Amino acid sequence: MWRKIASFPLKGIEEGLKLHSQLVMESIELLSDLIEKCRCHDWDNVRAAAEKIAFIEREADDVKRSVELKLYRGILFVGLKEDFLRLLEAMDNIADRAKEASRALASRAPSKGEMEEVSDCSEKVKEMVYGTIDVVRILIRAIEMINKNKNEALNLAHEIEKYEERLDDVKLEALRRLTVREERTSPLTYLQIRDFIFLLDMIADAAENASD
What we know:
- By secondary structure, the chain is mainly α.
- It has helices spanning 2-5, 13-39, 43-73, 78-106, 112-117, 119-145, 150-179, 187-211.
- α2 runs antiparallel to α6, α6 runs antiparallel to α7 and α6 (119-145) packs parallel to α8 (187-211).
């Protein structure tokens, strides 16, 4: 895709788009470290992972602004330019939601007993995290295929939509398991985990928006 984009009068855009996608993927992949450290009750490293995600998200923002400036200055069919800008914004929303989710989880350290109480909910949250990582990987593959194989790009976009629907079911089950143990956790812990679940869901929604 990037080689063909470079054939348009958009010099300097190719590298920026690739770098932005890489940074978005890095921010999402760090969610796996975040959740594993949480399951080990290692809150110092949960906070460290959240800070790494925030740092990468800031880098992605800088790259996004650079690419936007070059897109606005480039000579390209207006509709196509707007499509690239919308795609860039949707991709950036993925990193934004990853930062918000990680900070919600790292905001405080629940007691070990509370985390043991919601262990079955944690299994579904872990499934959501790894599913979200998979969805974003599929999205980046779809973007790479746009000018290589449009049918494959469309198939991948449809796959993202179906995957996001499956993650919705996982989210509902995670919330159900959390809610039935609501009285065994503090209100803060309940809200902390619930907010993390909702923000994970927003990452998958952002990926679906990008695929659209």
